Amino acid sequence: MYLAAYLCLLAVTFLSLAGAAIGAAQLWQGRCSDLRWMEGAQALGSACLAAASGILLHALAASDFTLEYVASYTERALPLFYRITAFWAGQSGSLLFWALMVSLCGTAFLFTPTCRRLSDETRSWFLLFFLTVMAFFGFLLSTWSNPFLCVSPAPADGGGLNPLLQNPGMIFHPPLLFLGYGGFVIPGCLALAQALSSQKDSMHWLDAARPFTLTGWLFLSAGIVLGGWWAYMELGWGGYWAWDPVENASLLPWLIGTAALHTGVVETRRGKLHRVNIFLMGLTTVSAFFATYLVRGNVVNSVHAFGDGGVGTPLLLFVLIALTVVGFVAFCARDARSRELGGLETREGFVVMTVWLLLALSAIVLLATLWPVISRLWTERPVGLDAGFYNQVCLPLFTVLLALLLVCPWLRWQGGVRSGKKLLPCLLAFCAALAVFWMSGVTRALPLMAASLAVAVLTTVALLLAERSTRAWMPSVMACLVHASVALMALAIAFSGPYKQETEVELALHDSAQVGPWTVTLNGLNEGRGSNYDFIEAELQLSRDGKTTATVLPQRRLYDKFQRAFSEATTYPGLATEFYVTLLGLHEGKAVLRMSANPLVNWLWIGGALMSLAPILGLSRRRRPAGSEDGGEERGKDGC
C-alpha cells in the first residue's frame, strides 16, 4: 500500500513534467488549442495526490507504526483527531498537505466558467506555470521529503505528538495557512500567463482570479490570527505575537498579498500599475515558498521550525528562479491603457502610499528575520533581533497605516476631498478619543496615537456604511468591514501589550493575591490523569469587588513520551479585561503562578474573525448600481 502511495508521488512528478513539456512545445509551435493533455495531467496528478493523502490519513488513524512518519508523530494513546492532525505536524506530511491544497485549487479553477472564458494561449501558459509548481512539489515529496518511508521492525508504539501541538489550534491553523498559500498560486500563475499571452482575453486576470485571491487572503488571515490565539493559549506566556521567524514567515506573503490587493484596485478602477500588479501577485506566490524555506530550510532558529531534511537547497533554488521569472515577465509586460499616477493628494496617491508602507514592513520583517544569517558575513557569532526591535520599528509604521485608512476614503480619485462634512466628524472623533484616553491614563505616545486613530477609523467605517451607495455594492461593504477589523485589532494591541498588568506569585492553600481588578484565592491543588499525561491542577477562585465571579483551573502536565512538563493556561474572558493564569509548578507545597490582566485582548480575536469573514462578501463582483457616487470616478471605494 505504501509503495503504491510512493508511486503516486512519482506519478505526480512525471505527469506534471510531461504536461508542462507538452504545453511548452505547443506554445513554441504556436498551437495552443489542444489543452486536453495538460488538463489531463493536472487532473490525474490531483487524483494521485488525493490517493497518497488518503493512504497517509488511513495509516495515521489506524496507528500503523510500520510507517516512519506515523511512528514519529503519533502514539496509541493520542486521541483520533490529534492523530489525524499529525498529517501536517511533520515536514513531509505538511508538504504533502500543501501540495494537495495547491492541486485542488488548480483543479477547481480549471472547472470555473471564468477559466473557460480565457483564451487558449492564456490557459496554456497558466497550466505551464501551474504544472511546473506541481512538478516541484512532486520532486520534493518523492526524494528528500517522502512521507511513506517504512521501518522494520515496527515499534510497538509511536513517539507521540509534541504537547504544544495537542491543541485545537493545531486542527485549523496549519490547514488555513496552506489553503491561503494554495489560493495565491492561482492568481500568481494567471497574472504571468496573461502577461505572456498574445491572444486577447475577454476577462482580465484580476477578475478571473478574484475568488481565489480573496479566499487565499481570507484563509491566510484566518491562519495567522488563529496562530496568535494558539500561541496565547498554549505557550503560557500571556502574549500572542513574539516576532518568531516562523510567525514572520507567514506574515510576509500576507503583507505582500495585501499590497497586491490594493494595487489591483488601482488597475481595475483607473487602468494603472499593470506591471506592478503582476509583479506583486507573483511575488506573493513566491513569498509563500520562501516562507516554507524559512520554516524547513534550517535557516534560522525557532521553536516552530523543522530541520532541513535536505529540502532547503532545492526550495531556495526554486524561489530564486521563480523570482527571476516573475521579475522578467512583469518588466516585459505592456498595457496600452497605462497612464500616469495621480499625486499624493489623490486617492490613488494614498493607496500607493499604503502599498509602499506594506512593502516597507515586509522588507523590514524579512531583513530582521534573516539578520542572524546576514550578520555571519562579518562575525562568527551571529546576532538575532528580539521583539523589542520589531516593536520599535514596525508598530509606528502600522500606526501610520491607520492614519491613511482614516483619510483615504474621503478623497477623490482625481484629487480633493469628496465630503468634508464627513471627514470633519472623523477628525473630531480622533481628537476626542485622544483626550479621553489621555485622561484615562494612556500616556504612552504610540499606544495613544494608535488607539485614537483606531476610533477615528471606526467612525469613518460607520459613516461609509451609512451611505446608500456603499451598502448597495458588496465589495465596498467588504472593504469597510476589513478596515473596521484592522481598527479593532489595533485598539486591542495598543492596550493589551503596553498596559497588561502581570505578576508572578507563590500561593499557599487559601492565600490570595491581587492582579488588576481581581482577587485570586488558591482553594485547592488536585492531581489527575489524562489520556496520555499526568497533571497537577490549581483551583483558583476569582473575586471582583468582593463578589466571586468564577473558578479557573490551570494545569501543569507531564506527558508520557516527553521528559519536561508543559503548562496549560486558563483564562476568564471579558470584553474589557481578561484574566490569564499559568501554573508554573510547585515550590515547597505552594503553587507558583503567573497571572495577568489583559485589557481589550479579546477584541483582537473579534477583529481577526471579522477580517477573516468579510472577504466572503466580495467574492461575487456585480456591476455597481447606476447613479452611485458619480458612477465613474468615485466607484471602487473597495480600494481604500
Report the principal-axis shape.
Answer: globular
Using only CA atoms, what is the Rg? 26 Å
Task: Name the poorly predicted regions.
Answer: 626-640
Please describe the biggest sheet, giving its number of strands, its sense, and whether it closes into a barrel: 6 strands, antiparallel
Report the helical percentage.
55-70%
Q: How would you classify the helix and strand content by structural class? A: alpha+beta
| Total strand segments | 10
What is the count of helical runs? 21
Q: What gap, in angstroms, lies between the N and C termini? A: 53 Å
Question: How would you state the average pLDDT, rounded?
Answer: 89
- Percent of residues in β-strands: 5-15%
Tell me about this structure.
With 640 residues, the chain is α+β, with helices and mostly antiparallel strands. Among the domains are: 404-499, no CATH class; 501-599. Helix content is 58%, strand content 12%. It has 21 helices and ten strands. It has helices at 2-29, 36-61, 68-73, 80-85, 91-110, 113-117, 120-142, 168-196, 205-208, 210-234, 245-270, 274-296, 312-332, 347-369, 371-374, 387-407, 420-439, 445-466, 468-471, 474-496, 602-613; strands spanning 501-507, 512-515, 518-529, 533-544, 547-552, 555-559, 565-568, 570-572, 577-587, 590-599. The strands form two sheets. Strands 2, 3, 4, 5, 6 and 7 form a six-stranded antiparallel beta sheet that branches. Strands 1-10-9-8 form a four-stranded antiparallel beta sheet. Helix 8 runs antiparallel to helix 10 (210-234) and helix 10 runs antiparallel to helix 21. The radius of gyration is 26 Å and the shape is globular. The protein starts with a helix and ends in a 27-residue tail after the last helix. Mean pLDDT is 89; it is low at 626-640.
